[in-house]
Amino acid sequence: MRGCKNHMKSTSKHQKQKNRLIKCLLFTVLSLITAAALIIFYFYTYQDFTEQDYTLVYISTLVYSIPIFFIGVYVYISLKEYYKKIDNDYLQTQETAAKRQEQLLIHAREQMQQRMNAALSQLNELEHLLRSGQEKEACQLCSRLSSYYQKTRYRHYCRNDIVDVILHTKKEECDLLHIAFTCHILLPEQMNLPAPVLISLFVNLLNNGIEGCSSSGQESLFLKLSVNYKGDYLLLHMENAKNPATVFSHSSTKADTFSHGLGLLILEEIAGQRDGSCHWQDRQTAFVSDIMLRYR
Question: If DSSP codes are grouped into helix, strand and coil, which group holds residue 217?
C-alpha cells in the first residue's frame, strides 16, 4: 500500500519543492538584472553624457554585472547541493519503507509457517490419541484447539474492506516493532470517499504514529486510533508515543521533516479538499492527531 498512493504523493511533493527552488532562483536573477537595467535607463534618460561618460557607464555596467554573475553562480551551486540533499532524503525514505515492508512480509511468512507446524503437530497428536483409544483426552484436545482458533481467527475491525486490511497490516507492523496497538472503528454504512483517498488517509496517519513511536526512545510504546462520524463528517482521533525531547513545529515532530512532515501535509491536503481540518497536539510524551473531513 505504501508503494501505491503514498509513493505518488511523496513524488508529487518532492517535485513541488524543486519547482519552488527553481522559481526562487529565476526571481533572484531577474530582480538583479531588472535593477541593473533601471539604473542604466535612469542615467541614459536624465543625464547629459559625453563620450567619456558613456565609457564610464559601460564600465560600470560591466562591473555591476560581475557580482550579478557570481551571485547567480552561488545561488545555482547552493540549490544544486540542496537538490542532492532532498534526493538523498527521498531515496532514504523509500529505502526505509521498502525494508520495513520486507520485514513485515518475512514476519508474516514465519508466523504462518509456525501456525501450520503447530496445527499439524496437534492434528498428529489427536490422531495418535484416537488410535490409542484415549477418547477423553482427544475430546479435551479438541476443546483446547477450538478455543485456540476462536482466539486467533481473523477478526474484522470494521465493515469497510479497505480500512480493515490497512488496520490489520499496521497491527502486524506494530507487533513487529513492539507497539501496543488498539483501535475502535465506527464507520458510516455509505461513504463517498474514493479508495485512493481512504488508503492515503489511513496509511499516512498510521505511518506517522508508527514513526513517532519508533523514534520516541520510550520503553512503553502505544498507538491508539478511534474513528467515528457525526452528521456528514468523519472524525479520526489518534494518540501515539513521542520523544519528549522533540518539540513539534507544525510540519513535523522529527528532525527528518521530509518523511514525517510530508505525511502531515498529505493529511492536511485531504482534509482541506473535503471541507475539513487537522489539529496536531504535542503532549511531550504523546502526540495527538485529530482529523475531520466530509465523507458525503
Answer: coil
Residue 201: closest CA among 284, 139, 103, 278: 278
Cα distance between residue 285 and residue 240, in whole Å: 9
pLDDT, tens only, 76-106:
787 777 777 766 766 676 677 667 667 766 7
Q: Is residue 296 within a helix (H) or strand (E), and if so which, with residue range?
A: none
Tell me the three cell numbers of residue 16: 513541488
What is the per-residue pLDDT across 59-75, written as a single tens digit (0 to 9) for each?
A: 766 776 777 777 777 77
Segments making up each domain of the chain, as ranges: 1-153, 161-294
d(CA 138, CA 129): 6
293 bridge partner residues = 234
Instruction: Look at residues 270, 253, 252 and name the one whose alpha carbon lies nearest to residue 202.
Output: 270
For the purposes of burial, counting CB atoms within 10 Å of the CB of 175, is it exposed (0-12), middle (13-18) or buried (19 or more)?
Answer: middle
The highest-confidence range among 81-90, 125-134, 235-244, by mean pLDDT, is 235-244
The Cα–Cα gap between 229 and 271 comes to: 14
161-294: CATH topology is Heat Shock Protein 90 (3.30.565)
Closest C-alpha among 193, 205, 175 to residue 265: 205
d(CA 92, CA 259): 9
How many C-alpha atoms does 178 have within 13 Å on its Cβ side?
7
Which residue reads 511533493 in cell numbers? 13
Give the C-alpha separation, 57 to 36, whole Å: 11
Q: Treating both helix axes as pointing N-terminal to C-terminal, what angle do 7-46 and 257-273 enclose, rounded to 10 degrees? A: 90
Tell me, what's the pLDDT at 278?
94
